[in-house]
Amino acid sequence: ISLYDVCFYFPAFMGGITVLVMYFLGKEVLNRATGLFSAFFLAFNPGFLQRTTAGFFDNETIGVFATLMTFLFFLKAVKGGKFSHSVIGGIFLGYLSLSWGGYQFVFLIFPILCAILILTNKYNENVLLSYAGVQGTGLLIYSLYVKFDYGTLFSDLDIGGIFLVTIILIIFHIIYTKKSEHPKFYNNLINIIKWGFIPAVLVFAVIIWVAPQTIPFGFGSRFWTILNPLFRDEIALVASVAEQMPSAWSVFYYNTLIPLILVPLGVFFCFRRLNAADIFVIAFIILMYYFTGSMIRIILIFAPAAALAGAYGLANVLKIFGSFLGERKVGISRRRRRQLKETLGNSEVFAVYIIVGFLCIAQVVHTTDIAIKQMSYAQMVPGGGIHDWEESLIWMKNNLKGTDVVVSWWDYGYWLTPVGNVTTVNDNATVNQTRIGLTGMALMQTNEAYSAKAFRKLRADYVLVYFGFLISGLGGDEGKWTWMLQICNDNYAIYKQMGWEEDNWAENAVFDESLYQNATTGWVEDDWFQSQLVKLMFAGEPTSTEDTQQGTLQYEYARAINSRSTDDGDSWASHIPEDGGYDSMVFIPEYFSKYHLVKLYRIDYTVLDSSFAIKNPEVFDSGHATFKLKNTGKKDLLINGVEINGEEYPFIMSIENNTVEDGTEELVWIDTKGSNFKKDDVAKINVKAQSEALYGRQYVFNNETSNFFVKEASEGEIMINKENSIVIQKNISHVDIYLEVENIGDSTVILDRFYANNDITENIFNQTTIEYLSGSRILEPTDKANILISNATTGFYPISTFNKIGVATPNSISDEILFTSSFENFSISILSQERILSPELLATLNDNYRKHIPIDLDKSYAYKYDNGTIILELIVKNTGEIIFGLDSVYLTESLAKVPFDIKFGNINLKSDEEAVIKVDATGVPGISGEVNEEILVCVTGNFGINGTVTSDIGYIHTIKDKSDIR
C-alpha cells in the first residue's frame, strides 16, 4: 500500500467514521432516533460529501471528525459529571488543534455555551468540570506544536480568551457554591447579569465599531473581523478565494436540502426542553448559520449542525405522531392528546410517515445526483474529459527535479507539489499574502525584465499558466487576473519598503488598475494585452478562425478575440500578434499540454544577468573616440557594434575577442576618421552587445549614453620603456622582442602598429605575431602595456647588430628606440637604461627616435679634453639572470672594436653586479673629436664557449672636462 493509496481512500474512510460519530452525538443530545436521522442526513449531505470524497485529501476530513468527538464527550461530561469524559474531549480538541486551522471555532464555542448556561440558570458544577477538562487538555496538547507561541496566552483572542473565561467561570463557580448561604446575593447577581448582558453587549459593540484598538490583548480587532464578515472583502487575497465568499441562500439549500427545512422544528423543540444539550444544539446551528453565511467554506461544519438540528426536530415530530399508534408517553397532556385523536386518525399518521419517507428519498436522490454529475471526476479534469492537467503533472514528475521551482497562481499549488513533484511558492493554503502578491506582480507586469526580477525574487525556474481559452466553464487564469492586480496592490507598502519599486509603478500602488480594465464597462485596456500573463496564455494560439477546425478550443478562442472589443473599440485580435507569435527573451516554452490548457515556460534570467555601463565617453575632433565599458552583469558580453549619432564605426577593444567578462572593465577606441566631428558638436554613443542565453540562444541588447559635446583632442604621447624592454635572440634568423609601452600623454591612445627601422608597410610586424602579455592596445594616460613580438625576422645577429624598433598610433603618434639583442636569460645594460631624444634633433626636426644615453656624471659620460683626447666612462650592469664576462666595446655605426679597461668592478659580472669601463676613443675612425659629438657605443658580454651572448647600445654626447659643465 503506497502513500498515495492511503491519501486517496483516507477522506472516504474518515467520512464514514464521522457519520458514525454523528449518530452517537445525536443519541447523546436526545435519543437513538435523533442519532439515526443525524447520521442519515450527514451521510447524504452534499456539503459534507464533497469534502469526504475519495481522492479529496485534506485535513478538513479530520477536522469534522475531531470537532464532533469533542462535542460528544463535552456533552457526556456535562450530563454525567465524569472528568474522564472531559479529558477525552480535550484529547480530541488537541488532536483537532494540531491538524486543522478551524480549531478556533471549537475553542470559542465553549465559553459562549457556558455563558448561555449561566444566563438561563442551567449552570451546575458539571459545567466547570467539563469546560476545564476539555479546554485545559486541548490547550496542553496544542502547546506541543512546534510553532506554538506562548506569547499568545496573553495577547491573542484564541488562547487568551480561554484563560479569561476560565477565571470568570471559577469566580462564578465560587459564588454558585455559596448560593445556599447567600441566596439573595446570588439571585441579585444573576439578575444583574441577565439585565446587564444586553447593555454590555451594546457598549462592547460600539467600542469595537468606533475604536477596536482600545480593547486589550488585540481582542477588539479580532472581534471586528469576526462580527463584520464584509471586512474580509477589503482584503483582495481573502476575497479571491471562492470558498471564503459570502454564501447565498441557494448555497444552504443546495448543500443541505431537507435538514434545512427541519431546522426550525429542531430549534423549536430545543427551546421547549432547553437543557444543556438543547442549548448546545441552538448555539451550534445559529453560529453555523452566521459563519456559513459569511464564508461558504464553513458549509462543511454547517452540515453536521443542520443534520443534528433537523434530526432533533424530525425525531420529536415522529415521536408525537407515533404516540397515536401506541400508548407511549409523550410530552403532551391527556386532554390535548384526546383532542388530537379526535381529529387525527391512523391514515393521517401514516401519511406523515410517508411524507417523511419521501423527504428522505428526496435527500438521497439529490445527493446522489450531485455525486454522479459533479463529484464523479476530479477537479483537475476540466469539463470532465480534458486531461491536460494530469498529462502536465505527469510530465513534470518525469522531467523536472523535485527542487525545481514552478511558480503559478495559488489555485494549483496542491496539485503541483504532491502530483507533479516540484517545488511551489504558493498553494491553496494562501498563508503568505506577500508572496502571492509578488506572483501577481510578476504575471501582470508589462515590462518583461521587471517581470523576470519578480520571478527571481520567488526563485522561480519555471512559470505555469492555465489557459481556459476564454471559456468560462474551464476556469482559466484569464478570469483570475483582477485578483493578481488587487492582491499585489494590497502589499504595495511592503514591496516599496523592500526597495522593489520600478519606474513603471503607479502612484501609491504597483499597478494602475484603470490601465488594465475600465471599471465602469468592464472592458479591458491596452496594458492587459501587454501583461506577461496574457502573452503566456495567448502564445502560439491561432488568431483567425480560418486556420482552425470548428468545435475546437482554438476555434472558440479565435472567434472570441475577433468578436470582443477593448475600451477603445478595437478588437482583441488587433492587440495580439498573428498566431500568438510573441517574441520573448525571458519565457521559453518548455511544455504545452495536448489541448494547450496548461503551458509551462522555462524562465531565462539572461536579461537580468546581462548589463553594462558606458563610462567616460569622449569623442574628439581628431578622428577618434573612446569610452570605458564595464560589464555590470553576470554574463560574459560580446560587443557587436558601436554607433555615434546613429552611424556605425569600426572600433577596437582592449581585449582580443571583444568579449568582456563579468565584473571587468575594458577600453574601447573608435575610429571616426570618416566623419567630420568638430568641437562642441553633440554626440551620443550607442553600444550593441550580446550574451549567451539558455538553449544556445543569443540575447542581443544595447545601451547608450546621454548627449555630450565633442572635445578638442590633446596631443598624445607614448614611450617605449627600454628598462623593461629587450630583444631575445632565439636563433640566427629569429628574435622575440619584448616591449613595455607607456602612455605618457594626457589623452587615451591606441597602439596601432609596431615596426623595425622605418614606419613603412614592409617593415611593420604582422599582427598575428603580436601578443599583449599585460595591458591592452588601448592605453589611458599613465597606462602601460607589455608586448611580445614573437619570431621576428629582423636581423639582430650577430650579437651587437642594432636596429630601431618603433610603435605608432593610427594618428601617427610614435616612439622609436635603438636595440641590440641578447640570448635568453642574459642581459647587459649601459646605465642609465633610459634613452632620450637628441636635443638638436628635438629642436629642429621634432624627431621621435630615442637613442641617446642621458649625460649623468654619476653614471656614463664622455669627456673631450683640451689636449684632444676623448675618454668614455661607462657603467654597465648585469641585468640578466646568468653570470657573463665583459667581452667587447664597439664605437661608431661601423662598430669599430676598441680596447677598454675595468676602472671599477670585475670583468665577470654576476646578476645585478655593476662595473665601470674606461674607453679611450681618441683617433678612432669615424670620431671627429668635436665637442657635443654623438658617439655610438655598444658593449657586449660573453659566456665561455657560447661566445658573445648579450649586448647593449646607445649614443653618448661628448662634453668638455670643465668645472662649470660638471
Topology:
Blueprint: H1 3-29, H2 32-43, H3 46-49, H4 60-80, H5 83-99, H6 103-119, H7 125-142, H8 157-177, H9 183-210, H10 219-227, H11 236-240, H12 249-256, H13 258-273, H14 276-294, H15 299-322, H16 334-343, H17 346-374, H18 388-399, E1 406-407, H19 413-416, H20 433-444, H21 448-457, E2 462-466, H22 481-490, H23 492-497, H24 526-530, H25 532-538, H26 553-563, E3 587-592, E4 598-603, H27 606-609, E5 612-619, E6 624-631, E7 637-644, E8 647-649, E9 651-653, E10 659-660, E11 665-671, E12 682-683, E13 685-692, E14 698-704, E15 708-709, E16 718-720, E17 726-729, E18 735-743, E19 749-750, E20 753-756, E21 770-774, E22 778-779, E23 784-792, E24 803-808, E25 814-819, E26 821-822, E27 828-831, E28 836-837, H28 839-844, E29 849-852, E30 861-864, E31 870-878, E32 884-891, E33 896-898, E34 901-904, E35 908-909, E36 914-920, E37 934-942, E38 948-960
Parallel strand pairs: 1-2, 17-26, 25-29, 30-38
Antiparallel strand pairs: 2-4, 3-4, 5-6, 6-11, 7-8, 7-10, 7-13, 9-11, 12-15, 13-14, 16-18, 17-18, 18-23, 19-22, 20-24, 21-23, 24-25, 27-31, 28-29, 30-31, 31-36, 32-33, 32-35, 32-37, 34-36, 37-38
Helix pairs in contact: 1-2, 1-4, 1-15, 2-15, 4-5, 4-7, 5-7, 6-7, 6-8, 6-14, 7-8, 12-15, 13-14, 13-15, 14-15, 15-17, 20-21, 20-22
